[in-house]
């Protein structure tokens, strides 16, 4: 299934509710689903892990619908067979384990 | 692009790095990307919002790769044209704005 088809299915199923809930509460729900995914991964429960991955991408699609973003186009625009930073495949960027904080700059 | 194709592209680009980083640090990176999406939404910057949506789905795919989950199959297994709870389209479940806490049960 195309990313866009999945997003459209979510729109058919949930758009009216997502709009009524609003962006802030929908974002919070997505955050909660991500925490449930973390718990499922920690518990190593394969069935739960799969269901929670489904919920995270579903709520991400819901959030994209109410913020009027085409998730597939956004994904392909940034990631299109090459790393967006080093422009190579596989990525050859310098390996860092954790994402540096935006304002974490020593003088 | 199919969800699975996108996940495979992420695997080609980043699997070796994602494996080296590990599940915990990759999850943390995904959480950080979600916070960046929140900031972009708050700032109402359309270009940034699209890029941050791309990053969130990219890191979700990376996490799926190293936890050996097929994101497309997981999504379709749970959400397949009908709401998984009420089995209707559009969803007809009782509307609640916020996700109830799992242990939030009054006696």
Give the helices and strands, then pairings.
The structure is a homodimer of 107-residue chains.
Chain A lengths: L2 H19 L1 H20 L3 H21 L4 H8 L29
What does this structure look like?
- 2 copies of one chain form a homodimer.
- Chain A is mainly α.
- The first copy, chain A, contains 4 helices and no strands.
- The interface between A and B is large, with 58 and 58 residues.
The most extensive interface between chains reads: A-B, 58 and 58 residues
Estimated radius of gyration of chain A: 17 Å
Structural class, judged by helices and strands of chain A?
mainly alpha
The biggest beta sheet of chain A is recorded as: none
Residue-averaged pLDDT of chain A? 94
Shape of chain A: globular
The helix/strand series of chain A, from N terminus to C terminus, equals HHHH
Give the oligomeric state: homodimer
> pLDDT under 50 segments of chain A (min length 5)?
none
Q: Estimate percent helicity of chain A.
A: 55-70%
- Gap from first CA to last CA of chain A: 48 Å
Q: Note the total helix count of chain A.
A: 4
Strand tally of chain A is 0
Q: Strand-residue fraction of chain A? A: under 5%
């Amino acid at each position: 299934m195309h990313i866009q088809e999945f997003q459209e299915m979510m729109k058919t199923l949930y758009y009216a509710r997502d709009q009524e809930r609003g962006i802030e509460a929908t974002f919070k729900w997505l955050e909660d689903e991500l925490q449930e995914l973390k718990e499922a991964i920690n518990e190593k429960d394969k069935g739960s892990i799969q269901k929670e991955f489904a919920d995270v991408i579903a709520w991400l699609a819901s959030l994209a619908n109410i913020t009027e973003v085409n998730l597939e186009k956004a994904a392909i625009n940034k990631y299109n067979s090459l790393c967006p930073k080093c422009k190579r495949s596989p990525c050859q960027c310098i390996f860092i384990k954790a994402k540096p904080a935006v304002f974490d700059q020593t003088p």
